Amino acid sequence: MGLITGSSLTMAMRCSTMMVSLLGMEEGLQASKRPCLGTSGQQKVRKQMQTKDPQIVAAKKRRERISERLKALQELIPNGSKVDLVTMLENAISYVKFLQLQVKVLAMDEFWPVQGGKAPEVTQVKEAIDAILSSH
Questions:
Q1: pLDDT tens digits for range 43-87
Q2: In the chain, what are the helix, strand and coil shares in percent, each to the nearest 5?
Q3: Most buried pick, 18, 49, 80, 106, via CB within 10 A?
Q4: What span, in angstroms and rounded, lies between the C-alpha atoms of 84 and 78?
């Protein structure tokens, strides 16, 4: 083995001091990550204050209403329960547009036969739908 010189001994001491320091910091960090355990009375008071905060109560009610409405919409849309939320909303938008188009077509007088008249031809219906679609 070689001799340990003064400078290498000083360097070794610095390294060991740094290691101890780092280990101490790590233990301190781990200790600070532990949850702060207050008395149960303090926790109850905090919880009660949060539940009485009007903003928190209003936000909770709003989230509940949104959730209820989405469930109702999910039941109305074909295959609504089988897809994710975004896809279901996209399907709902398409479905409502489709229904609006049907209402426009059915509201047009020329598609209802006059007494003794005949029903419109399929080509007439297609042309009317194309005209409605192109107007948007």
A1: 777 666 667 888 999 999 999 999 999 999 888 887 777 888 888
A2: 80, 0, 20
A3: 80
A4: 13
Q: Are 30 and 24 contacting, i.e. CB atoms less than 8 angstroms apart?
A: no
Q: What is the DSSP letter of 111?
A: G
Amino acid in the structure at residue 96: V
List CB contacts of 83: < 8 A, sequence separation 6 or more: 91
Least Cα distance to 77 among 102, 100, 94 occurs for: 94
pTM of the model: 0.43
Residue with tokens 């109850």: 44
CA dist., res. 133 & res. 4, Å (int): 90
User: Looking at residue 5, what DSSP letter applies?
Assistant: P
